[in-house]
Amino acid sequence: MNKFIQFMEQKFIPVANKISRIKALQAVSGGSMSLLGVIMVGAIFSVLTSITWAPYQNFLKATHLLTIINFVPNVTTELIGLFMAFSIAYNGAKVYGIEKNAFNTGVISLVAFILLAPITVEQQGMVSTNMFDAAYFGPKAVISAIVVSLIVIQIMKFFMNKNITIKMPEGVPPMVSNSFTSLIPAVVIVLVFGLVKYGFSVTHFKTFNDFIYTIIQTPLQSLVGSFPAFILLLVIAQLLWFFGIHGSQTVLPILIPVWLGYMSENTASLAAGHGIVHTINFGLWDLACIGGCGATIGLVIMMFFTAKSERYKAFGKITFPCGIFSVNEPLIFGLPLMLNVMTIIPFIVCPIVVSSVGYLLMKLHIIAPYVGILGTGSLPPFIHGMVNGSVSAGIYELVAVVLSCIIWYPFFKMLDKQALEEENRIKEEKAND
Prior knowledge:
Helix content: over 70%
Number of domains: 2
Shape: globular
Largest sheet: 2 strands, antiparallel
Radius of gyration: 25 Å
Structural class: mainly alpha
Distance between the termini: 39 Å
Strand order of the largest sheet: 1-2
Number of strands: 2
Low-confidence stretches: none
């Protein structure tokens, strides 16, 4: 075990630290998480339309609520690429040190992203109508939005650092001054992406978005959409947590762009009356991290109800409420689980068991898969499943709590026994003094 820890500290952790500090990943992660509100609203409304109970559906149709509910996903999750083009550039500008121009960077990125989308002209008599295909602003365009926003950030950063800007006299309001400061890079960015649009129009791809979707997004979806890849990334995240590095923040930026597309496709499929398209999604990750990384909900329950040592009785009172909402940093750094060789086995094994059993039950059609809504991981077991459109998965989450308790029980009892013996020894020493 000592050799393993030494190897991880020397080889694995430095690489993980470098990855977590990559500014592009920070921009993508921050930009995606900023859209949680929009994403959750759209996903929840999609789930509302997927409930197949006949009286409920008849009520929605009779009151025309179905039309309203169906409209919400169309302007939220179905336009996720559009929102990401702004949000990633806006957050990325702050990460790259051009925060004064963060808003303008976001707007310019949005313009560049829209510029790349194909326009269809529909002729009706004497009237011509220019139309955008909404598919080029939705889940299909998530990777394109990321690429565009990161390129825009780099161009903006270059012009700002080189002071190739229009400088306004002192006394001009900052909002006006910043607008003129961004004018030159904005013109360059529009010209660059205009040329990119024309360049792809003469290829068999026809559009930049179709090129990115074919070359990058589709293969990436196949790669991270497999269960072995899911388990591999889960283990990596757990190992990072074991060494005190935020595993989720390191791994999820790789998954978020793809899983956002999965979420939108799942909600659209449900709204159309079909089943879940992608079983590997945010919901399954949340299941693996029930109670927090390491699936530690069983540990906090054992600690709260069965601890005999004063140390873990007190700690259980603190961590139990947090664990119900999957917040377990107090366990990681306070117990600690970090660098604790006595708990590394359940810390890695428990998430694998909980998610593997759940995935198997989904594949056997015993429980329904999750929609996979980003940002619902902090919801308590069962409620998390309900919000993600699966009552049966919510019931399994309660079973997963029991599984977590079973796996963590012997390891916690070992810790508790050691703590109790230490406390008794201290009491005896004080009594002898």
